[in-house]
């Protein structure tokens, strides 16, 4: 075969590659097929590489002609592939927009059923149990002052117990309440004993966010004041509530300290083989009663407080408190 014939053959092959590639690239319907065409025409074992592999059979003078033509064809095909990719991307985006477009004028086809948040259902369950025991629900403001949040609860200024509750302070001696106990003080100002109330609501503390802590959470406070109340009444009430909520689980009381109750205790239930703290309680300190004008020799009382999130997490076997404060429908639709 003469060099002229070999040169013409290679030039014809390059022209055929260009023609075939233009047709196939323009007809490619997706990115995957486009990538296969790139490999077929421009890959190491592709048609263009096969032509370049024959350059050794032509003369030294003819090789630059094939090399220049092949290089030009390579850049031309790469440009065609790039433009086709952009067209396919726009088509895919338009198809996605068409599928996701909502016609707000179209009539509704059924109404999806909503789901009650697990914190709400847990709060309602606790409230139902205590109202069944004769307690009244009382609420109060979330923005409090120092008197109701601390002083009236036997926590004067510079008392070390204030360190137990890292507080969000506002201006003008105001703060975000750290517990719902201030509701008890406000209620007792205008309601003499006998008293049996619970006070549910949001509370705030400067806690770092992790799997078990949040700067915003929910508490329910329990208060009973009457003549002749003692620790046995407190223990009986707590036991009746916990057994109604958790079932027949072991319960234990541990001595503890709270500035507004004396004696004080923390209460644990045995859950999945481990003791889990669920609430604090105690007999109302006489100083708190006297501060509200109640004769502590005639009346006694007990108080208890629990975190709704803890009860909710145990009730539904939730491993991370942060799940309760997201809007993840995959999580919320389980309840």
Structural class: alpha+beta
Order of helices and strands: HHHHHEEHEHEEHEEEHEHH
CATH superfamily membership of the largest domain, which one? Bira Bifunctional Protein, Domain 2
Proportion in β-strands = 15-25%
Regarding CATH, which class of the largest domain? Alpha Beta
Q: What is Rg? A: 38 Å
How many DSSP helices?
11
Helix share of residues? 40-55%
Identify the strand order in the major beta sheet.
1-4-5-9-8-7-6
* Structure summary, number of beta strands: 9
The general outline is rod-shaped
CATH topology of the largest domain: BirA Bifunctional Protein, domain 2
Describe the model.
The protein has 335 residues and is α+β, with helices and mostly antiparallel strands. It folds into two domains: 98 residues; 215 residues, BirA Bifunctional Protein, domain 2 (2-Layer Sandwich), CATH 3.30.930. It is 43% helix and 20% strand. A seven-stranded mixed sheet has the order 1-4-5-9-8-7-6, with helices on both faces. Strands 2-3 form a two-stranded antiparallel ribbon. Strand 7 and strand 8 form a beta hairpin. Helix 1 packs parallel to helix 4, helix 2 packs antiparallel against helix 4 and helix 5 crosses helix 10. The longest helix is centred in the N-terminal third of the chain and has 38 residues. The N terminus is likely disordered.
